[in-house]
Amino acid sequence: MSLRQKHRLSFCYCNMGTMRRFFGRRRKPPPDTYQEPAVVRPNPEEELRSLRRRLVQSFVTSALPSGKEFLPVTEIDKLVNYATIRLVLPEKASTDVIDFVCGHGKTLFLILVVGNEASPNDLLAIMESCRKHNMTDEHLPVDRIPCVGGKLPCHQRVAHHKAWDVFHDKLWAHISFRFFQDQAMFTAPVILKDKFIYELKEGCVLPITWKAQKPHIGHFSTVYEAEVHHAHHQDDRYFGESLKVALKQLKPLTSEPGYNVETAWNHETSALEEINKLHHKHLIRPLAALRCGLEHYIMFEWADGGSLRELWESQGPEPKDLDPDRIMSVIEEVLGIVGALSTLHGTNNRTKTGNVVRRAADLAGMAAGERLTVPVPHSVKPREEETKDHSPITTPDTSKSPRNVPEIHVRFVEPSDDEVSFRSEDPNRSYVSEESDASSDEHWRHGDLKPENILQFNQSQTNDSRWLGTLKIADLGLAKQHVFATARRKDMTNQKFTTSHYEAPEAVANLHLPRSRRFDIWSIGCVILEFVIIILYGNDGLASFYDQHKIRENPHTDTLYFTVDRNVARVSDIASHWIAEILNDPECNRAGGSALADIVRLVRDRLLVVELPSENMVPSQISRCRADAGELKEKLEAIWGKAIHDESQGGDYLCFRKDRANIAPPAPLQVMKPKRTAAKSRLGDDLLKTQPNLEVREPYQYRYDSGKMTN
């Protein structure tokens, strides 16, 4: 082989080696020598700062206390999860600690984060200690205890919850102050369906995102229109939306002798908690009672239609044309209000009045040869359908009725200073008994029924398309003012505490006697009569009626509905005059019968009646006394049933002449009549005068004997 051939062969071998190196298949290294690319773990300090920024951005400003911030509960789960905690804590953090933080220590962890005083290593040490001592979110908020950080020896440490022993560790020494200060932002309460009373720590932030700038300021409290954050309530009707409420803040009133705000709040919340169990459609629903240190609040559902007074004022000065649907709505809602009163009044049948009425009925039955037990309507246990959250009666479909009530805001009127309260006969309860029977049964009364305390809920809250919506009785827990106001009431020369316009005559004529449940019947009679005046004559007619107060003989004791002379009460000439004139109105004075006329006669004959049942009365005498809620409900149901039947027959019982443009209201009474001596009162002129416990001065003028008058 020549030298040239050898060079060519060597060149080929070199090229083949090169080709093998660059184009040949590369083999992977053996499995035992393969390594994953290195992952760089984020810096825990950077992750902690990032979490803190997101946390600060999640805070919401509260309106109470103004300017304070709170963290909505829904944000906690968004901020604290396994992946986040894994990156914030040091790499040496065990899975058990991370699980504890994500399960039972989310709020604890976030309080430490927002304080900006704990490093990742501090957070790990503290959370390990919390896990060891079983210190969880359930133990928040924590009181300020002097033994934080081991500053005091064990024998000097104050008694506290065992889980709080975690604060004895020295690692809390430099971060405890911020922890106790910041925890208020994380413990805003959630208004639950099955919880009413909330005992909160001083400085707690309420989840109130907005409140009206102009609250109603009363003597005993201030009431705000407010909104609860959507994450802090459980009202399904407003899921994902803020809940509008009426927030009542009680005043300390340290300058008022005999008044204690703590006692007042306890009395009112106890009464509301019990009454709330009735679940009646026409009783306003209290949502929560909150005590935040020295501040006391009660939260109610918001009446977006306003009060009945505001509804009347919205109707305009002139009367509207009569509409059968509107009149039927009024009858139905008044019947609902009376049904709520009957439920309130009907929880106890062992009162003195109940015994009097039952005994009189038994005597009448025995005289007829048999033992007759007449059920007392207001003493009967409320029917099942009335205790549920729907109307106590089956109402016709009036959805076609136009709702022309404008959007107005409620004015939560503070109870008058001579207020009285719901009562219970149980002497161990915090609220006082209505009567002196030693009975454990409960019964209630309102004591301050008036248009301002009857609120309107429109269609959005009640699914009621009628123009009147649903009317509910408000101010249900007024026990706070009984002792204080009763003492002031006796001073009739004090202008500030003069008689309420809607109070029954026994409020003035019999200060030494207990109030009865029939006190409310007089008040609802006044409201019903004024409702009829609004329907027939508009606001101008009602204003003309109110102007009659100028001719009262004694402004300190007399109202438009009764007058008192030497502790003797009778129906006023003003009320008698207006009732007589209304019954002479073309709408009421017609042969075919009138629903409004029947209602006015019911007010005249059974509601605005001075006399109350007492001992030794016979049934014929008791039947002429003021009605109870059960009887009133029955008679209103009869009027409602008659209206339903008449409407189905195409009758005109609800209204006859729709146009009211040329119908003038009753002419005002110019001067009060002289004291009656022999003339009979139209309001009960047949009442027998044989009662041994009554001193009869004039017709319908009675002096009550202490100890005998019971209802």
From TrEMBL:
Regions crossing the membrane = none
Q: Where is the composition biased (Polar residues)?
A: 392-402
**Entry's InterPro entries?**
Kinase-like_dom_sf, Prot_kinase_dom
**Residue ranges, annotated region (Disordered):** 379-445
Cite the Protein kinase domain residue spans from the record: 209-608
Biased-composition ranges, Basic and acidic residues, are 381-391, 406-428
Task: Please state what the protein is called.
Answer: Protein kinase domain-containing protein
Lineage per the UniProt record: Eukaryota, Fungi, Dikarya, Ascomycota, Pezizomycotina
